[in-house]
Structure to design on (843 residues):
C-alpha cells in the first residue's frame, strides 16, 4: 500500500538559528511530540475492514430509518457529486456509489490499531481522541533517526495497518495535534517556528466554540496567523479565557501535561457479514484477512499471539425456514454462538500458520450453522527468542510441530495425541494426556535435571525393564481357581494352563468417589493349548507361553486381562 | 608395461566418464551413525540403532519387543531428544515406561485405533522432522492386517528418514518392511524368571507366599538383516545385506517392575511394597 501524495513539510532554521535538535539538547528540553491523525476516520475504519472499497466511490450512512443520511464520503464520492447530509434515497441514485452503514465496532478496532501504531514507536503515548494520538519522542532519535524519519516510519506503519494518516512533529503537544489535523502527510515544525507554521491554517482547526467561531467570522479573522496577531489583553476582554486559550494555540505556545495511556495486551478484530457463510473455504478467506490484520498489529508491537479465540455468531435457524404460516408466531431467539480457543505452545504471529491451525480446528469441530459475524481475538505474549546450542540435539521446529500435532489430532482425535503424565493416584493404569511440551521447554527441563539419572537405571544400566502392553478396554476372562489360585484361564477363545502365578496384589481406593476400585492383580505365566491356538489364526501367531497380568474386579465380580508382559 | 596400464586406465576412465566420475579412485563408504538401544547385549550385537534408517523389531507377544523399544525410547529421551510413539492399538503403558526410564515429557504419544491412522500419523511426524526416534507400534495388530500395508509405504518411510537424524523403529509380529529396513531384529522369549516359581499348576504356592514373585523374563534377539558392517571400531554402510547366521544373536534379561514403583516422587510412602511381581 502506498501513501498517496505524502508530503514532507519542514521549515529549516533561519539564519542565526540553531537546528531544532541541537537547540532542544542544549536547552535540556523534551525532544518533541508527534501526533498521528487519521482524516475521515469513520470511513477509513470501514475501508480497513474491506480494502476493496478503496477503489470505489464510498459513502457511509447513519441514522434511524427512514432518516438515514450520508455521514462520510471519500474523495471519489465527492467528485461524483455526493454531499454530506444527503439522504440515503438521494445517494442511492448514484449508480457507481457504494454505500455502507457506519460501523462503530470497526471504529473501535481502528482506534485500537491507531494506538498500536503509536506504541510501535514510543511507549509514552496519549490517547487524545478517537482519530488522533500524540507520542512522546524523547530519546527516539537514537533509534529511528531524525524526526522526519520517525514521521515516515509512522506513516508507513499506519499504511501497513490499513489507515492513511497525517503525522506532525512539534515541540509541544497541541501544536503537533493542530498541525496533524491541518497539514497532509508529514510535517515537522522546528522549535520557535510554531506560530509561523500554523499561520496558514484556518481558525477552525483550533476547535473554537460556535459562538466564538461566529464572532471571529464577523471580525474577518480566517487564519491562525490573523488570530495570533490580535492583542491578548483585548482578546481576553472580548472572548474571555477561551479567547486566551485559542490565542495560545494559534501561536503554538501552549504547555500542558501529557496523559500517558496504558498499553493493552488484548487484540481483537471482527467482521460482520452481509451474507452468512457456510463453507469452510470462504470462511478461511475471511479468517485469513482478519489474521493478517491481527498479525500486523502484533508485529507492530513486537508481540506474538499466545492464544487465539474465535467467536462466530451463527445465523438463527428460523431465517432459513420457509413455513410462512408460522411467521407470526416466530420468536426471535438470540443468535447461536460458536466459540473455540486455540492455545499455542509457543507464541506465534505467522498468519499463514495460524490460519492452517484454525482450519484444522474448524474441520474437526465445524460450526453447526451459517456464520454472519466473526470475532477473532488474540492474547499477546512476548515472541519466542531462542538460540539453538551447537551441542544440543535437534528439535522439531515449534511452529511446524504445532501444525503437525494439529494435523494428527485431526486424524486420531483431539485427546489422543499428547504427552502422557502420571497422576497422583494408586489406581492401576491411571494416567492423563497433557499437551506436548515445546521442545524448548523440554530442553529447559532437560537442562534442569540433566544430572539426575533414575537410581534404578544407574544401578543396572544394561538390564531392561519388562514392559507391559495394555488391553484397552480390559479383556473379560474366565478363570478356574484352586485354593484361591488361578489354575486355568479362558479368554479371547484361548484356553491355557497357569504355570506360575504371583498374587493377589490387592489394591482399592477412591471409595469416597463415584468410581471406586477394588482389585486383586495376578501375574500369570500361561501355557496355551495348541488346539485352541490352531483354531484361531491370530492365536496361532502367539507363543505357546505368555506372561499376562490378570485382575479380579471385586466390585463387578469379574476377571479381566489387563495386559501382557512384552 | 606401466605406460600401457596407464593408457588402459585412461581409456576405461574416458569410456565410463558419463556414468562414473572417477572409477579408479577409492570412495570412502559413509559411516553409519548409531545410537545405543539401552540394552548392552543388543547394542553389542547390532552396534546400535542406525540413524536415518528404518529398524524393524518383530516377534510374538511376550518376546521382549516392547521392552527393547521402551529401552531405546528411554535412551533417546534421556539424551534430551524428542521422540514419538505411534501406538496402533493404544497399548502403551506410561507407568512401566516411566519406570524404565522414559522421560514422558519428551515423548509424543499418538493413540490410534487402526492401521490407517497409525500410518498417516507416522507420515506426518516424519514430514514434520526433528524427532530423534519415531516408533510405530504394530505389536498387537494382527499380522494379517499389517501384511496388507503396501510395500511402497515402507519405501516412502525409508526415503523420508534417509537423510535425517531420525530413527524409525517399527514393532510388529512379522517382518514386513523387507529390504526397506536397515536393521531387522527377531525376538523370542526364552523363559520367565520366577522367585521359587514352580513348573506346574499343582506346585503353585498359596496366595501371599513370600517366594512367589515374578522376577522378569529372558529374551533372545536375533539379527536377521543389517546394512551396516563393522569395520574396525566403526560401522559403515554396506551395499550387501548381511543376513544373520544362526549365531548372530544375543540374550538379554528384562526385570519386572517393582510394585508401587510408579508412585510419584514425594507421594505417600513408596517403600516398594512386597517386592518384585
Amino acid at each position: 500500500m502506498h501513501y498517496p501524495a505524502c508530503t514532507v513539510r519542514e521549515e529549516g532554521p533561519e539564519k542565526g538559528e540553531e537546528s531544532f535538535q541541537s537547540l532542544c539538547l542544549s536547552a535540556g528540553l523534551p525532544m518533541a511530540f508527534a501526533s498521528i491523525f487519521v482524516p475521515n476516520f469513520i470511513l477509513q475504519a470501514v475501508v480497513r475492514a474491506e480494502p476493496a472499497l478503496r477503489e470505489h466511490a464510498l459513502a457511509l450512512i447513519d441514522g434511524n430509518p427512514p432518516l438515514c443520511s450520508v455521514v462520510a464520503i471519500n474523495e471519489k464520492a465527492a467528485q461524483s457529486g455526493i454531499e454530506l447530509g444527503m439522504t440515503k434515497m438521494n445517494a442511492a441514485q448514484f449508480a457507481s456509489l457504494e454505500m455502507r452503514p457506519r460501523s462503530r465496532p470497526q471504529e473501535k478496532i481502528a482506534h485500537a490499531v491507531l494506538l498500536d501504531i503509536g506504541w510501535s514507536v514510543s511507549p509514552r503515548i496519549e490517547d487524545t481522541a478517537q482519530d488522533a494520538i500524540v507520542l512522546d519522542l524523547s530519546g527516539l532519535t537514537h533509534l529511528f533517526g531524525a524526526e522526519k524519519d520517525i514521521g515516515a516510519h509512522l506513516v508507513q506503519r499506519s499504511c501497513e495497518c490499513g489507515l492513511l494518516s497525517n503525522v506532525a512533529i512539534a515541540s509541544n503537544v497541541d501544536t503537533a495535534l493542530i498541525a496533524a489535523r491541518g497539514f497532509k502527510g508529514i510535517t515537522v515544525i522546528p522549535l520557535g517556528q510554531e506560530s509561523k507554521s500554523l499561520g496558514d491554517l484556518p481558525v477552525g482547526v483550533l476547535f473554537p466554540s460556535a459562538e466564538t467561531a461566529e464572532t471571529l467570522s464577523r471580525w474577518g479573522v480566517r487564519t491562525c496567523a490573523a488570530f495570533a496577531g490580535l492583542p491578548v489583553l483585548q482578546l481576553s476582554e472580548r472572548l474571555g479565557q477561551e479567547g486566551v486559550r485559542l490565542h495560545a494555540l494559534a501561536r503554538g505556545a501552549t504547555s500542558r501535561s501529557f496523559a500517558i495511556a496504558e498499553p493493552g495486551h488484548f487484540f481483537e478484530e471482527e467482521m460482520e457479514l452481509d451474507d452468512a457463510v457456510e463453507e469452510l473455504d470462504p470462511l478461511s478467506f475471511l479468517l485469513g484477512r482478519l489474521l493478517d490484520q491481527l498479525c500486523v498489529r502484533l508485529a507492530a508491537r513486537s508481540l506474538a499471539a499466545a492464544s487465539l479465540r474465535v467467536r462466530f455468531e451463527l445465523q438463527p435457524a428460523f431465517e432459513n425456514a420457509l413455513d410462512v404460516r408460522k411467521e407470526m408466531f416466530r420468536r426471535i431467539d438470540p443468535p447461536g454462538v460458536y466459540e473455540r480457543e486455540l492455545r499455542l505452545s509457543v507464541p506465534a504471529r505467522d498468519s499463514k500458520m495460524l490460519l492452517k491451525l484454525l482450519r484444522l480446528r474448524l474441520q474437526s469441530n465445524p460450526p453447526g450453522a451459517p456464520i454472519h459475524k466473526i470475532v477473532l481475538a488474540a492474547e499477546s505474549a512476548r515472541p519466542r527468542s531462542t538460540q539453538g546450542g551447537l551441542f544440543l540435539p535437534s528439535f522439531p521446529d515449534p511452529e511446524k510441530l504445532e501444525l503437525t500435532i494439529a494435523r494428527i489430532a485431526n486424524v486420531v482425535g483431539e485427546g489422543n495425541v499428547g504427552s502422557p503424565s502420571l497422576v497422583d493416584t494408586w489406581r492401576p493404569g491411571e494416567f492423563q494426556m497433557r499437551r506436548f511440551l515445546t521442545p524448548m521447554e523440554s530442553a529447559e527441563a532437560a537442562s534442569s535435571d540433566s544430572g539426575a539419572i533414575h537410581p534404578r537405571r544407574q544401578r543396572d544400566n544394561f538390564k531392561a525393564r519388562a514392559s507391559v502392553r495394555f488391553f484397552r478396554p480390559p479383556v473379560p476372562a474366565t478363570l478356574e481357581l484352586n485354593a484361591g489360585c488361578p489354575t486355568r484361564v479362558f479368554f479371547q477363545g484361548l484356553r491355557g494352563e497357569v504355570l506360575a502365578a504371583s498374587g493377589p496384589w490387592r489394591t482399592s481406593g477412591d471409595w469416597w468417589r463415584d468410581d471406586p476400585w477394588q482389585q486383586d492383580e495376578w501375574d500369570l505365566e500361561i501355557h496355551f493349548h495348541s488346539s485352541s491356538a490352531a483354531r484361531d489364526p491370530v492365536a496361532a501367531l502367539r507363543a505357546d507361553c505368555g506372561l499376562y497380568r490378570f485382575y479380579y474386579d471385586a466390585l463387578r465380580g469379574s476377571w479381566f486381562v489387563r495386559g501382557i508382559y512384552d | 608395461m606401466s605406460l600401457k596400464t596407464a593408457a588402459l586406465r585412461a581409456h576405461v576412465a574416458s569410456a565410463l566418464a558419463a556414468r562414473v566420475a572417477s572409477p579408479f579412485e577409492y570412495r570412502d563408504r559413509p559411516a553409519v551413525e548409531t545410537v545405543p538401544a539401552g540394552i548392552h547385549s543388543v547394542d553389542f550385537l547390532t552396534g546400535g540403532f542406525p540413524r536415518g534408517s528404518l529398524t524393524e523389531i518383530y516377534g510374538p507377544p511376550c518376546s521382549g519387543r516392547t521392552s527393547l523399544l521402551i529401552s531405546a525410547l528411554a535412551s533417546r529421551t534421556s539424551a534430551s531428544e524428542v521422540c514419538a510413539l505411534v501406538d496402533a492399538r493404544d497399548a502403551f503403558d506410561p507407568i512401566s515406561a516411566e519406570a524404565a526410564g522414559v522421560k514422558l515429557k519428551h515423548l509424543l504419544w499418538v493413540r490410534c485405533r487402526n492401521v490407517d491412522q497409525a500410518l498417516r500419523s507416522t507420515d506426518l511426524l516424519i514430514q514434520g522432522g526433528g524427532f530423534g526416534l519415531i516408533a510405530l507400534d504394530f505389536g498387537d495388530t494382527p499380522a494379517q492386517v499389517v501384511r496388507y500395508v503396501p510395500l511402497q509405504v515402507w519405501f516412502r518411510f525409508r526415503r523420508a528418514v534417509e537423510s535425517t537424524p531420525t530413527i524409525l523403529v517399527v514393532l510388529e509380529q512379522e517382518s514386513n518392511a523387507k529390504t526397506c529396513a536397515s536393521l531387522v531384529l527377531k525376538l523370542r522369549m526364552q523363559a520367565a524368571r520366577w522367585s521359587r516359581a514352580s513348573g506346574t499348576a499343582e506346585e503353585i504356592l498359596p496366595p501371599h507366599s513370600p517366594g512367589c514373585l515374578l522376577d522378569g523374563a529372558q529374551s533372545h534377539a536375533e539379527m536377521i538383516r543389517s546394512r551396516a558392517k563393522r569395520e574396525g571400531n566403526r560401522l559403515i554402510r554396506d551395499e550387501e545385506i548381511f543376513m544373520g547366521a544362526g549365531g548372530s544373536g544375543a540374550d538379554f534379561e528384562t526385570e519386572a517392575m517393582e510394585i508401587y514403583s510408579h508412585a510419584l516422587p514425594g507421594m505417600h510412602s513408596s517403600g516398594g511394597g512386597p517386592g518384585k511381581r
